[in-house]
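User: Structure tokens for this complex, please. No commentary.
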Amino acid sequence: GENVEQHPSTLSVQEGDSAVIKCTYSDSASNYFPWYKQELGKRPQLIIDIRSNVGEKKDQRIAVTLNKTAKHFSLHITETQPEDSAVYFCAAYSGSARQLTFGSGTQLTVLP
Amino acid sequence: ETGVTQTPRHLVMGMTNKKSLKCEQHLGHNAMYWYKQSAKKPLELMFVYSLEERVENNSVPSRFSPECPNSSHLFLHLHTLQPEDSALYLCASSQGGLAGATDTQYFGPGTRLTVL
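Assistant:
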């Protein structure tokens, strides 16, 4: 089945700096890669996603890049703000397994 | 937020108890999911229900039993649980059935379960 690895597990940045979180996946047939943000005590919420037919997608301060050849994708947050502090999860959808497989999460802390 | 609701929000039970978790979605979606979220571990998919069929993760113990009476309601029946089953149980829904599994999944707030 699909295996998703996420790094780093914790990340601290100064307010205004950029943050990058990386994920790798194992199933070359995976074709959908969402990113979820989970604030403390709250539910995970989708912040951005990318499909395998594009290499990059941006939404204001958030961007995701996908390298299908290397089987890795990354989340980029620019001009970080304290409210960006949360746990971020990547995921990959495998058509063969018919399910989303999640990474283990990254605790992002933005220091004021 | 009222899109996906879960009750109860917190549950403490003994290993011999029987309890049920409830999930309801008000989004008109066709697929619903149960996930287990343990500390320091990835979200684990337990069950998927869609219009077409139920998909099970074969690693889920039989002490967890799902029920989906209609497209808006999902239950997780619990019996003779173990302390290692303590976790946050999240329900989610998405627009498509299994064929639309790349649709955005909307999560409920979760049930924090503690097994003594």
